Amino acid sequence: MLENKNQNKTSLAQLGEFGLINHITQNFPVQQKSTLKGIGDDAAVLDFKSKNVVVSTDLLVEGVHFDLSYMPLKHLGYKAVVVNLSDICAMNARPTQITVSIAVSNRFPLEAIEELYEGIRLACNSYKVDLIGGDTTSSTTGLLISVTALGVVKKEEIVYRSGAKENDLLVVTGDIGSAYMGLQVLEREKQVFLVNPNNQPDLEEYSYIIERQLKPEARTDIKELLEKLDVKPTAMIDVSDGISSEILHICKASNTGCNLYEEKLPLDPQFINVCEEFNLDSTTIAINGGEDYELLFTISMNDFEKIKANPHLTVIGHITAENEGTHLITRENTKLPLKARGWNALTE
Amino acid sequence: MLENKNQNKTSLAQLGEFGLINHITQNFPVQQKSTLKGIGDDAAVLDFKSKNVVVSTDLLVEGVHFDLSYMPLKHLGYKAVVVNLSDICAMNARPTQITVSIAVSNRFPLEAIEELYEGIRLACNSYKVDLIGGDTTSSTTGLLISVTALGVVKKEEIVYRSGAKENDLLVVTGDIGSAYMGLQVLEREKQVFLVNPNNQPDLEEYSYIIERQLKPEARTDIKELLEKLDVKPTAMIDVSDGISSEILHICKASNTGCNLYEEKLPLDPQFINVCEEFNLDSTTIAINGGEDYELLFTISMNDFEKIKANPHLTVIGHITAENEGTHLITRENTKLPLKARGWNALTE
């Protein structure tokens, strides 16, 4: 699909590295006051005044993290930015800048790279973050994207994974599991397409879960929401590998246990329907499926009244003493050990 | 050489992503006051007080930027850090933190990754920078390393590429061209080895140029040196692609021309000998060969007395008006147009 067979397309070798950088970065206006100098020198220059700076980085590899047969390049660019901004949000910080490096094989024409950067530009625009640097190089095989995100936060606002206390409530934003089931639908359609390329899929009834997979959003709104509600989380993490894995990270870092309640999990009706269609247990998928990019956090029980009516926030459990262990409490009130079966990039 | 044939070696899949991160980052103590939180949360947290922050990033791809048949993994790790610190130095800033992401195929056993991180650790230790984050993932083919470096600088100390003025002197640190010829020697030895694997190369007489290729250093010392000499460069860049390319970057960003003098180029005797041995023109190599990671900068002519006796600094030309063009003045006093024939990662 991406083979450069069309002789009208522009080859990357023709343009060269500096030409490519100039070309793809021309539509990236600076939007943050803290960006003194973006692309164009040996390094970007930033002025965060006396605020703290948070830094996070992610590497996305074709064939490991994404499949271009159903992931449009524009969506891929958007998602590559979002997953990094999500990490910044998980520190209770505000994302401000990103760098994006790509390694790309010669089978990609310039027009493909433009699509990718159009998605990156849309994300920068939507989240008001500046693209301040990067590197472009060839690769011997597929496409690889490395994004580093920076954000700012006042020191007293930072939320680490390690601050959860016994009796704190476990809260998640939005709903979970849908991104994973979106991927299952896309994988199925790919197999159908391979058998019969004329088969046009009707994905209407899967629109929500597919959007959750192809165009996730970072919860930059939650910091402001919690400030309005006058709630500061005691611990926070974003949901990239699945909430079971993320809860265990919080418990390990905070030296606590937890009880997670199956009946409390916020699930979208479309997600539940598709789990039934695939004969999959919705709870297993909801707690182990990754890539929702929601925020998972703990708050003091005293703050419950402040958040209980909020449609964005769901209390799904509570923190216990470390020696009580980490558990999932089923609808039948059975206590099961909570285990991380989330995604692992090294065992695929 | 790196195939995981030895069953005693530890596979990456056995260890898993979090296990690998924990394992390889355990020997990285925090050395910078500005690092409040390094590895272990969604993002690192940094406090630069009111100083400006500079950020640079580079992507190194096996088969494009390095060849593991003559690049030991420890050296590769060291070099991957150094090339990024060099960019920070080129802003007249002080490097403070790095993130390192790697994509690695399963043919690499854990022990290979340990070697790589041992080089990264040596560089962190030598330059007193903190490893504050990263990502590890599998790749479908070779090894890929993405490094982002951060540094601090007072606003009034920053040196951009764009500040060169007519009559400014063009200065380079150290000597140039050797890293490129080191690579030529290594490439030749590889060919010899492929023909006869029992042939043990004697590289004694090439030790300096090979070290320049395999273990370059970032000129973090130059900022301090120039402060002692009471000289602030008007423009600065580091020598990664070759000085002809770098000089043209400064001239373009500063809207100036330049005259570069062949007879002034600082060349190591070993470099000159090896150029003769390879029947290559030393000037062509010196101005177009990359990876020296020296600093190239311009200073006001009034500062000439302050730097002229310094063994680290060589005046190699001067800045002219833009309409005079960019030239190389040969030993025979011929004026040749200066062209960038430096390395281009996309045309290889």
- For the record, the count of structural domains of chain A works out to 2
Q: List the quaternary state of the chains.
A: homodimer
Low-confidence stretches of chain A: 1-6
User: By CATH's scheme, which homologous superfamily of the largest domain in chain A applies?
Assistant: PurM-like C-terminal domain
Mean pLDDT of chain A: 91
* Spatial ordering of strands, largest sheet of chain A: 8-10-7-11-9-12-13
Helix-strand string of chain A:
HEEEHEHEEEHHHEHEHHEHEEE
Helix content of chain A: 25-40%
General form of chain A:
globular
Largest sheet of chain A: 7 strands, mixed
CATH class of the largest domain in chain A: Alpha Beta
Structural class of chain A: alpha+beta
| CATH architecture tag of the largest domain in chain A | Alpha-Beta Complex
Which fold name corresponds to the CATH topology of the largest domain in chain A? Answer: Phosphoribosyl-aminoimidazole Synthetase, Chain A, domain 2
**Radius of gyration computed on alpha carbons of chain A:** 21 Å
Distance between the termini of chain A: 24 Å
Strand % of chain A is 15-25%
Summarize the structure.
Chain A is an alpha+beta fold. Chain A has helices spanning 12-25, 73-89, 110-127, 178-195, 207-214, 221-228, 243-254, 269-277, 282-288, 304-307, and strands spanning 35-37, 44-46, 52-61, 94-104, 130-138, 144-153, 169-173, 235-238, 256-261, 295-299, 313-321, 326-329, 335-337.
Description:
The structure is a homodimer of 348-residue chains. Chain A is α+β, with helices and mostly antiparallel strands and 348 residues long. Chain A has 2 domains: 12-157, 60s Ribosomal Protein L30, Chain: A, CATH 3.30.1330; 161-337, Alpha-Beta Complex (Phosphoribosyl-aminoimidazole Synthetase, Chain A, domain 2). Chain A has helices at 12-25, 73-89, 110-127, 178-195, 207-214, 221-228, 243-254, 269-277, 282-288, 304-307; strands at 35-37, 44-46, 52-61, 94-104, 130-138, 144-153, 169-173, 235-238, 256-261, 295-299, 313-321, 326-329, 335-337. In chain A, the strands form 3 sheets. In chain A, strands 8-10-7-11-9-12-13 form a 7-stranded mixed β-sheet, with helices on both faces. In chain A, strands 3-6-4-5 form a 4-stranded mixed β-sheet. In chain A, strands 1-2 form a two-stranded antiparallel sheet. Chain A is globular and about 65 Å long.
